[in-house]
Design brief:
Number of helices: 12
Helix content: 25-40%
Largest sheet: 6 strands, parallel
Number of strands: 10
Bound molecules: NADP nicotinamide-adenine-dinucleotide phosphate
Structural class: alpha/beta
Shape: globular
Distance between the termini: 35 Å
Radius of gyration: 18 Å
Length: 263
């Protein structure tokens, strides 16, 4: 281990609450906040796909913390409720809306992109400045269409397929930007970890598994059954150990730290 790869453990969190943040918190920070990402400004409207997922759950917090308006997309009423509790008022339940962006394997349906864009305008009154994209093939056409003229789609993944397709006319004539991002450099990881330590961004851990049940945890993520992050106890003897500063934890608020546990 190189010394510059180590980051201070947040004193108010347990080992598992500290560990779950490392990948997705840093990734979302870079995508939205850092100078290599979309550089969200106060007042920006930001649409987040998979808004209670591993990267989406941090993205929503970065938008709220940075003075923007998040529009969260999820796929169940329970996830809508979780977003509302986090302070995200504009939410789209994509399953309830029944979007069919692809009418068949080879053809996208612009009418569905328009229906999606109209829904966003109904919720926040305008097109999003930034779209936080990661589903890939199933959503990229809609994302490029729906983002504001001159706006940015930032992507770090392609869960549903990496051969993405969009209508270039909407892209070039409206001067939109498509930005790539991958994980984070040391500076971005440290900045994201500092925000966790300050209690401005919180872990989004929804469950904890023992090491011998790690396969169950992976399956739950694979089946899109889990919200946020799942902790797996490796060297920690039990759940909840390693909290060095319980007073700080109380000041920051147990409800915020454990919000995803009751999801
Ligand atoms: N490049 C990097 O550095 C980096 C870092 C971390 C993660 N990733 C990648 O980013 C992706 C997301 O990671 P994650 O940790 O957030 O995963 P996750 O916890 O499984 O969450 C992904 C969310 O995306 C939504 N989703 C899935 N398929 C979708 C589809 N076809 N259309 C619309 N929404 C869909 C789901 O939310 P709803 O069903 O509620 O809508 C799901 O909860 C993964 O592919 C992961 O490998 C990349």
């Amino acid at each position: 281990m190189k010394a510059n790869q180590l980051m201070p453990k947040p004193a108010h969190l347990s080992w598992e609450e500290s560990a779950v943040n490392a990948l997705c918190n840093s990734t979302s920070y870079r995508m939205l906040v850092g100078r290599n990402g979309a550089q969200m400004k106060q007042g920006d409207d930001v649409l987040v796909w998979g808004a209670t997922g591993g990267i989406g759950g941090y993205a929503i917090q970065y938008v709220l913390n940075g003075g923007g308006t998040p529009i969260g997309v999820v796929s169940s009423p329970a996830r809508v409720e979780l977003l509302n509790k986090m302070g995200c008022e504009a939410v789209i339940d994509r399953r309830a809306e029944g979007y069919q962006f692809w009418s068949d394997e080879h053809t996208q349906d612009e009418r569905e992109w328009r229906r999606f864009g109209k829904k966003i305008r109904e919720l926040v009154g305008e097109d999003p400045d930034i779209i936080f994209e990661h589903p890939g093939r199933s959503t990229m056409g809609a994302s490029i269409f729906a983002v504001k003229r001159g706006g940015t789609v930032v992507t770090c993944a392609a869960t549903s397929g990496y051969m993405v397709e969009f209508d270039n006319r909407h892209f070039w004539m409206k001067l939109k930007r498509l930005l790539s991002s991958h994980f984070a450099n040391y500076h971005e990881a440290a900045a994201a970890n500092k925000l966790i330590s300050q209690g401005k961004i919180h872990p989004i851990m929804s469950d904890v598994y023992s090491l011998d049940r790690v396969g169950e945890a992976a399956l739950a993520v694979h089946r899109n059954q889990a919200e946020g992050k799942l902790g797996v106890l490796c060297l920690a003897p039990e759940e909840g150990s390693g909290i060095d500063d319980p007073d700080k934890r109380e000041r920051i608020g147990e409800d915020k730290i454990t919000r995803f546990r009751s999801a």
